[in-house]
Design a protein that fits this description.
Layout (H helix, E strand, L loop, with lengths): L23 E3 L5 E5 L9 E2 L6 E2 L4 E4 L8 E2 L4 E10 L5 E9 L20 H10 L12 H4 L10 E5 L9 H8 L1 H14 L4 E7 L3 H11 L5 E6 L8 H9 L14 E5 H13 L5 E7 L7 E6 L4 H7 L9 E4 L6 E2 L13 E5 L3 H4 L10 H5 L6 H9 L3 H6 L10 H5 L6 H19 L1
Helix pairs in contact: 1-4, 1-7, 4-7, 11-14
Length: about 450
């Protein structure tokens, strides 16, 4: 079998053996649950409850703040104790709804009621996804219903299910593939009903052979669903890289996947679509991997949204005494947390704990012009020159060099022998370019 892949990229240590054999364990909610209003790409959600209100599990507590937005739902029944700013994983304080859990697990009317896909139109499916508050669970949290509503709907011929999980250490998607394969297939079939002329391809890296075999057997039920074995390489799960590997089509920063006839959804997102469409359940939980060399016991948890990172970690047995670095997300694109007393949100995928901090320990030296960053960049950019432009604060030159094509994957910084913080520089540069362009308009 010839493995599909993209050009360039890197091969960081995987670390998946620490948690890949840990079955998903359902985690109980806490007494106090916190729901930040900024949980998706786009405008923050707007509260529709007030202090003192009693809410039910599955009840909408915040509505979408705009077209590029999504509602938020309570994962418990209880009482709204406050609407106030709370610390989040990225270090910012965000307006949040605080709910005291009454442990009664009372749900809203219709919660969990089985629905038949055959009785639903394409419009019904998109509306169910919209009303469930589903966002992309493998990336920036882009509202899923917007993805399912492209202007060129009839041109969509390929639905790509991202099961690559290329970030080192993460195994939540892998466990979903192994434990919920039928549900994932049904979620895919719901998407295919929205795009009746399309076929679906599930992309899985070859470091997950059992998942490839299982999903291949499951996919035989539907001749519009296939599995594509991908070469294990980072960032194989990046949207542009995945589209290229599976279809050979190229996407740039001014395009959407739909412009090339593709819709891409993460495995976790597809499972959430299954629950929304077939079971009338909003997005109130996700799968979180707890792992790393400084974790006492690795685990994969089914987590009610709104629980605290510290609570999840302690349930897994806590961190070792030598733990010095905590990351929400993967080691390549995740967020280093200065405080783990922060709530989980829709896009929380993992808690990583390490006994060393390669970034903090790195001593930056001068560029030696070795070209390793160029060979690693999956976007075929020249990070060396982009870095020089940013050091001179020449944002215009950074943009001219293709800075907006950077996907911030961290491959260049990973291979740089001079330990130049290229990714951080490029993140700043991209923000500055957007701000400059906004002023022009």
């Amino acid at each position: 079998m010839k493995l599909k892949t993209f050009k360039r990229g890197v091969h960081p240590y995987g670390g998946k053996e620490l948690s890949k054999d840990c079955p998903i364990v359902k985690l109980d909610a806490e007494d106090i649950m916190v729901y930040p209003l900024s949980q998706n790409l786009g405008a923050p959600s707007k509260p529709v409850v007030s202090k003192g209100d009693r809410v039910l599990k599955g009840q909408m507590i915040a509505e979408a703040g705009g077209f590029i937005g999504a509602p938020i739902f309570s994962s418990v029944s209880g009482t709204v104790k406050a609407i106030e700013k709370r610390l989040t994983a990225n270090g910012s304080k965000v307006e949040s709804i605080v709910i005291e859990n009454d442990r009664l697990e009372e749900t809203v009317e219709g919660f969990g009621i089985e629905r038949n896909l055959e009785d639903m139109s394409a419009e019904d499916i998109v509306e169910a996804v919209k009303n469930a508050g589903i966002v992309g669970l493998g990336g920036a949290g882009f509202p899923t219903y917007v993805k399912l509503s492209p202007k060129n709907k009839n041109d969509i011929d390929t639905i790509i299910i991202n099961g690559a999980e290329c970030e080192p250490y993460l195994t939540s998607d892998y466990r979903l593939l192994l434990e919920k394969p039928e549900e994932i297939l049904r979620g895919i079939q719901a998407i295919l009903k929205v795009f009746p002329t399309a076929k679906a391809i599930i992309g899985i890296e070859d470091n997950k052979p059992d998942a490839i075999d299982l999903m291949t057997r499951i996919a035989r039920i539907d001749d519009k669903v296939d599995v594509c074995a991908l070469k294990t390489k980072y960032p194989q799960g990046g949207e542009r890289q995945l589209i290229y590997a599976v279809t050979g089509r190229k996407i740039h920063s001014k395009m959407l996947p739909a412009d090339k006839g593709c819709i891409v959804d993460n495995v976790g997102t597809v499972f959430a679509i299954y629950e929304a469409v077939y079971k009338n359940m909003p997005l109130i939980h996700n799968i979180v991997t707890v792992t790393g060399e400084a974790v006492n016991k690795a685990a994969n948890f089914d987590v009610p949204l709104g629980v605290n990172h510290r609570y999840i970690l302690e349930t897994a047995g806590g961190a070792k005494e030598n733990a010095i670095k905590f990351i929400s997300g993967g080691p390549m694109m995740g967020i280093a947390m200065g405080n783990i007393d922060v709530p989980t949100v829709k896009t929380t995928s993992s808690i990583l704990v390490f006994d060393k901090d390669d970034v903090a320990d790195a001593k930056e030296t001068n560029c030696i012009h070795c070209g390793r960053c160029v060979k690693a960049c999956p976007q075929s950019l020249v990070p060396q020159l982009m870095g020089q432009a940013m050091k001179k604060n020449n944002v215009a030159e950074f943009e001219k060099l293709g800075g907006m094509e950077c996907i911030e994957c961290g491959s260049c910084a990973y291979v740089c022998p001079a330990k130049i913080p290229l990714t951080q520089m490029f993140k700043l540069g991209r923000v500055q370019v957007r701000e400059a362009n906004a002023k022009k308009n």
